[in-house]
Every structure is written in C-alpha cells, then in structure tokens.
Amino acid sequence: MTNKNPTLSDVARASGVHFSTVSRVMNPATRQMVSAEVAARVLAEAARLGYRPNRAASTLVTRKSRIIGVVLPDITNAVFPPILLGIEEGLRKHGYLAIVANVGADEEEQLFVINRLLGQQVDGLILATARRDDPVIKMCIDQNVPVVTVNRSDETGVASCVVSDDVVGMRLAVEHLLALGHRHIAHIAGPENLSTGHVRRLGFLAAIQASELDPSQAFVFESSGYSRECGKAALLELLRQSPRTTAVVTGSDLVALGCYDAIRELGLSCPEDISVVGHNDMPYMDMIRPPLTTIRIRHHGIGTEAARLILQTIASPDSPVLDVRLKPELVVRESTASPRA
Fold first, then answer.
1. In the predicted model, is pLDDT for residue 191 greater than 90?
2. How far apart are CA 196 and CA 219, in angstroms?
3. Do 153 and 187 fall into the same domain?
4. How far is CA 177 from the centre of its chain?
5. Contact between residue 239 and residue 245 where contact means Cβ atoms under 8 Å apart
6. How far separated are the first and last CA of the chain, in Å rounded?
7. Residue 280 belongs to what H/E stretch?
8. Cα 89 to Cα 97: distance, rounded to the nearest angstrom
9. Phi then psi for 195, rounded to 5 degrees?
10. Which H helix or E strand runs over 40?
11. Which pLDDT score, from 0 to 100, does residue 65 have?
C-alpha cells in the first residue's frame, strides 16, 4: 500500500471548511483574510495530516515559484550575513523563500549561476554583485527579470538599489579625524569599478574639500580589493608614497584589518602613530585590538528594504526604479586618537 500525500481537499475536510479557505490560510500573503481561530484550526489539521504544499504544481498554476534568488560575491565576508538575514526575514513575511548563491567576481561564473537560478523559475533576483556598469544586470532587464541590487548599485539606472549613503559615511569619518586634530588624512579606496569604491572615494574628497585642509594633503590610494591582504598591501604602499599620513579612512573593515597588519609589520602602533577608520561595522569589530572606529551601515535594514523592493517590482513591473540610501552612523572606538604632537 502506498501512502498518498495529503492534499488541500484533505485538509479542508478535516478542518470542516471550504477548499478556498484552506488555500488562503496556507498562503501567508492571504492568511489575514481568514479569522485567527479558523486559520489556527486549519494549520493544526495540516500539521497533523503532514500536508506539504506542492510547489511545482503551484508554480504551474500561478506562474510564480515564490522563490527569490540572492547572489553574493563572497559569503565569507561578514558584511553579507546580516544583510541576508534581513532579506530572508522580509521575504518570509510574504510567503517567499530565498535561494542563495555565492559567485565571486568572475562575470562568466555570475552568468552561469544566474541562468541556473532562472532555470529554477525564481520570481526575481537580489544581486550583491553589481558593478557600476554591469552587463549581467542588463541581461536580466532585457529578459524582463525583476532585479534589485543590494549594497552596491549599477549606475546605468536600470535596476532599483538599496545601499548605504556612502557620501554621508565618509563625511562622518573625515569630520571625526579633523576634530581629533589630524591634518594629513589618507583614504584607501575600494575598486573604482564598484559603486562602493567610487562613491566612497568621491565622498572622502568632498569632505576634504569642505574642510579647511589643503586637498593636496589628502592622499587617495586605490586598493585592488576589499580583503585584509589588499588592505595591508595598500597601506604599506600608501605610507611609502605619503609618509606624513597620520590617519587613514578605509573602504571597508576588512581593509582596515589589513592596515592593522601593515602597522604592526612596520613597528608602529594604532592609534598612537596612525589612526584607522573602517567602514561597515562588521560583527566583532568591537572585539579586535584596538577596537575599530568605523562607519556602521544598516545591514539588516538594507536587507529588509531590498526584500520589499523586489516584491514591489514583481507585483508592479512598471513601478519606477528607486535608489534607496540608508543613513549610516559613526561608531567611535579605540583605533582613532589625536596625532602625536
């Protein structure tokens, strides 16, 4: 004898309600249309019977899988898990799930993974891999795939994005160092082909120009990436070219950790010899030595807002493209201090 999987009709008979009522209850997006008492009874009977929604059949009928593909460039980077948590929480409230893929920076690998996700009938994509002019995003738009970028933006303006306001963040960092008395401030920028690298660089330069400092005293050095290794190499070269530097604003916390490595290798101390400011406030930045002064971005808020935007784009394909920028804050810890007299 084979065990037949219970159906919506089985749950309806067991609950003493109509099939359509069960259908509404099993969909989180329409559950509020049913009284709490009836919904609780239906859910209890569904659990007792071992009912599981047939997603394949549902997709055929509604043409919606209620699954969103989320593509990350580096899942080991601690900035992304809190963003992902916000995305998943935002999607689950509306009965959606996320499929997460880690792809790195290679364009061909990104195209391969995204095509596989589309083959799984995802309803839309949230991309944390965007470059300033991204052919992957253009391909998705050309195929009418709903897309939202998160943490980074595509500057062609074809897809909605949710990012931190990097201009504000860099202004906060520079004003903090100026208030401490620093006059030789440098910036280790991220890669110029990424919006985070480009906009943070512009924000740093704008903050310097708005101050009383001579812009020629503000040195900018582009790091080849956002890793700890790249940060170490960047600061060693920066200090070779600009030895009077007393403070560094970095493009990410990982780059800042690399600066710590370089400072130790040179026999210097942070913040006594060089103050360091990070960006992102990844988990545990308060537990390193010295605890890192950094720009805290709203990781979870970025994720929940991205979930809201992708669902809005799916529901209203003609909705306008939005550029959402969440305000960051300065978190002062022990890696910054006044320069030596």
1. yes
2. 18
3. no
4. 27
5. yes
6. 87
7. strand 275-280
8. 9
9. -60, -35
10. helix 36-49
11. 82
The Cα–Cα gap between 248 and 279 comes to 11
CA distance 260 to 227: 13
DSSP helix/strand/coil, 248: strand
Count the domains in the chain. 3
| 254-269 burial code (b ≥16 CB/10 A, e <16) | bbbbbbbbbbeeeeee
**pLDDT given at position 183:** 93
Residue 201: which CATH number?
3.40.50.2300
Alpha-carbon distance 262 to 43, whole Å? 58
Instruction: Determine the structural domain holding residue 322 and report its residue range.
Output: 67-164+299-327
Classify residue 59 as exposed, middle or buried by CB count within 10 Å of its CB (0-12, 13-18, 19+). Answer: middle
Q: Using DSSP bridges, classify how beta strands 147-150 and 185-189 pair: parallel, antiparallel or unpaired.
A: unpaired
In which element (H, E) is residue 91 found?
helix 80-92
Nearest to 255 by CA among 203, 335, 182, 190: 190
What pLDDT, on a 0 to 100 scale, did the predictor assign at position 218? 85
pLDDT, one tens digit per residue, over 302-330 is: 999 999 999 999 999 999 999 999 999 99
For the four alpha carbons of 208, 212, 215 and 219, in that order, the dihedral sign comes to: negative
* Two tokens, residue 90: 């935002």
Task: Say which residue, 212 or 208, is predicted with more confidence.
Answer: 208
Q: Is 150 helix (H, G, I), strand (E, B) or coil?
A: strand
How is residue 75 written in tokens?
Answer: 């899942």
Q: Contact 25/38 with Cβ under 8 angstroms?
A: yes
Question: Alpha-carbon distance 77 to 103, whole Å?
Answer: 13
